[in-house]
Amino acid sequence: MQVLILGAGQLARMMALAGAPLNIKIIAYDVQTESLVHPVTREVFSHDLEYGIANVDVITAELEHIAPDILNICQASGKFYPGEEAILAGGNRCKEKVLLDKLGVNNARYQIIANRDDFDVAVANMSLPMVLKSAFGGYDGKGQWRLKTPAYADIIWQDIVKFLAASHKTERQYIIAEEFVKFHREVSLIGARSQNGSIAIYPLTENIHVDGVLNVSVSASEDTALQAQAEAMFEVIAVALNYIGVLAIEFFDVSGTLMVNEIAPRVHNSGHWTQQGAEICQFENHLRAVCSLPLGSTKRIRPTAMINIIGEATVPISVMSIAHVHWYDKEPRLGRKIGHINLCAFNDKQLGESLKVLALHLTKDEFPALMVAAENLS
Ligand code: AMP
């Protein structure tokens, strides 16, 4: 079985590694160089994208920001999963919000802003602080602003105008003004839906972000009522989109009531713990789903924490004696995710203790959320 992945980053790399035992061969389309590459060896293939699309069995994606013409050809091939509609919904906050509202899925109140007048109306009508987010092109906290008092409206608007001017022109950019949610934590749900409509969902994970970027994700014991709430929303969204593949949903947990923050139509950073913590990892389950193979068990086999390695962070080799280290073969660069660590334990308490031990090997500057995660478990 040959699978073409749109995007050639770490997610494609980890799918290639997970697919190898199933004889699933992966080629990836690097959107920067516009070439077909092997996502692990980085070998560049001489064929072009059209040849790849015509000759693989299945097409999928590791990112949602895909040029409309490429999306169209992939969709027309009849072998693209999860498909255009899901990718567009995940890649554009306006479409995502409209979808969630249409399905009656709880999400933060918002207003769509196209110009200064809309912005002024939002500032006048919505309670402050508010979060402003670009409809697309923003990720990991980029393309986002916080407006705390009307006094800063002009300054923030000037920054937004610069952002809008720099946005690419093939699609109209908007800003979403969203009410500030006073959540007490953030969680996410990763699940897979197969071509025959069966669904397999992993346990919820708790996510700790620093400056809008995921730092640590912990999969430990969870409240069954919260899990049921998240799964019900997952099912509504996945069925409505006739979704095939792994879908990730990020939530705000507001004292036991979940509110969707965003959906990602792909394998997700907060699902990396499944490589060591679940019976079948998210990467393999995504491939199983899109290749019409039976879904694998999503059962958590042990509490696991995933810690992102970001920018120029260093990891002494001593860490390998207590945890699993996954490098992405990427040049270190400020803010760039270059690897992650999966730390496993027999129970929640031991995971908290192990996180404290791990913190002794790593610096607080480079791994700021480790102790927070440890304290949450004790
Ligand atoms: P996002 O790109 O939407 O995932 O936002 C990045 C991070 O900003 C989230 O993980 C939250 O920590 C925070 N955030 C986003 N939207 C809101 C909101 N409406 N209220 C409070 N915090 C938010």
UniProtKB/TrEMBL annotation:
Residue ranges of the ATP-grasp domain? 97-291
Q: Which GO terms describe its molecular function?
A: 5-(carboxyamino)imidazole ribonucleotide synthase activity; ATP binding; metal ion binding; phosphoribosylaminoimidazole carboxylase activity
Give the E.C. number(s): 6.3.4.18
Name a single GO cellular component: cytosol
Q: Name one Pfam family in it.
A: ATP-grasp
State if Heme is listed as a keyword: no
**Record field: transmembrane:** none
Q: In which pathway does it act?
A: Purine metabolism; IMP biosynthesis via de novo pathway; 5-amino-1-(5-phospho-D-ribosyl)imidazole-4-carboxylate from 5-amino-1-(5-phospho-D-ribosyl)imidazole (N5-CAIR route): step 1/2
Cite the binding residues for ATP.
Answer: 93, 133, 138-144, 178-181, 186, 209, 261-262
What is this enzyme's catalytic activity, as reactions?
A: 5-amino-1-(5-phospho-beta-D-ribosyl)imidazole + hydrogencarbonate + ATP = 5-carboxyamino-1-(5-phospho-D-ribosyl)imidazole + ADP + phosphate + 2 H(+)
> What keywords would UniProt list here?
ATP-binding, Ligase, Lyase, Nucleotide-binding, Purine biosynthesis
Q: Which InterPro entries match?
A: ATP-grasp, ATP-grasp_carboxylate-amine, ATP_grasp_subdomain_1, PreATP-grasp_dom_sf, PurK, PurK_C, PurT/PurK_preATP-grasp, Rudment_hybrid_motif
Group of enzyme by EC: ligase
Q: Name the GO terms of the biological process aspect.
A: 'de novo' IMP biosynthetic process
Family membership, please give it. Answer: Belongs to the PurK/PurT family.
Tell me the function of this protein.
Catalyzes the ATP-dependent conversion of 5-aminoimidazole ribonucleotide (AIR) and HCO(3)- to N5-carboxyaminoimidazole ribonucleotide (N5-CAIR). Catalyzes the ATP-dependent conversion of 5-aminoimidazole ribonucleotide (AIR) and HCO(3)(-) to N5-carboxyaminoimidazole ribonucleotide (N5-CAIR).
Q: What is annotated about its quaternary structure and interactions?
A: Homodimer.
PANTHER family, per the entry? PHOSPHORIBOSYLAMINOIMIDAZOLE CARBOXYLASE, PURINE BIOSYNTHESIS PROTEIN 6/7, PUR6/7
The protein's name is N5-carboxyaminoimidazole ribonucleotide synthase
Organism from which the protein derives: Candidatus Enterovibrio altilux
